[in-house]
Amino acid sequence: MEEVPRVRAAGCVLWRRSPTGEGIELALVYRPKWADWSLPKGKLKRGEDARTGAVREVLEETGMACTLGAALPTARYVDARGRLKEVRYWAARVAGGEFVPNREVSRLIWLTPGDARNKLTHARDRKLIAALPATLLEASDES
């Protein structure tokens, strides 16, 4: 039996306190190559651990430094090239930075958890919002 190639990746559900002081907002990125709204994530570099890769990918895609919090469920799916993709995720709080469009991500938006769930292209990403720690969801407008 032939083994399916596996792609290791990592990412975050990036959050911040709402500028209005009411609840939290989540960052979604628009990737023109895939024409989708997604959570910041990407492939790990050779020898890179998932936590380091998640922080690096958030910085590369959003321009934001972050602090990792609770681990979230790992997503496993077959990607567009037929490879098994395994993406480890964390909740991550913004620690500063500024978004600048780049070759992978053309837009970044901040939305309430409910609005983010509705905007995400892939159902597998929506499940991650539901898995955020209860303390974050209680702080959101969606409680």
Summarize the structure in words.
The chain has 143 residues and is α+β, with helices and mostly antiparallel strands. It has a single domain (6-139), classed as Nucleoside Triphosphate Pyrophosphohydrolase. The protein has four helices and seven strands. Helix 2 packs antiparallel against helix 3 (123-130).
Which fold name fills CATH's third level, the topology?
Answer: Nucleoside Triphosphate Pyrophosphohydrolase
Provide mean pLDDT, rounded. 92
Radius of gyration: 15 Å
Whole-number count of domains? 1
* Helix residue percentage: 10-25%
- Compressed to H and E, one letter per element, the order equals EEEEHEEEHHH
Report the structural category.
Answer: alpha+beta
Number of helices: 4
Low-pLDDT windows of residues = none
Q: Total number of β-strand segments?
A: 7
Query: CATH class, anyone?
Result: Alpha Beta
Beginning-to-end CA distance, first to last residue: 48 Å
CATH superfamily: Nucleoside Triphosphate Pyrophosphohydrolase
CATH architecture: Alpha-Beta Complex
Main β sheet profile? 7 strands, mixed
Strand content: 35-45%
Quick overview of this protein structure:
By secondary structure, the protein is an alpha+beta fold.
Write the layout of secondary structure elements.
Elements: E1 6-17, E2 24-31, E3 36-38, E4 41-43, H1 50-62, E5 64-78, E6 84-97, E7 107-111, H2 113-119, H3 123-130, H4 134-139
Parallel strand pairs: 1-6
Antiparallel strand pairs: 1-2, 1-4, 2-3, 2-7, 5-6
Helix pairs in contact: 2-3
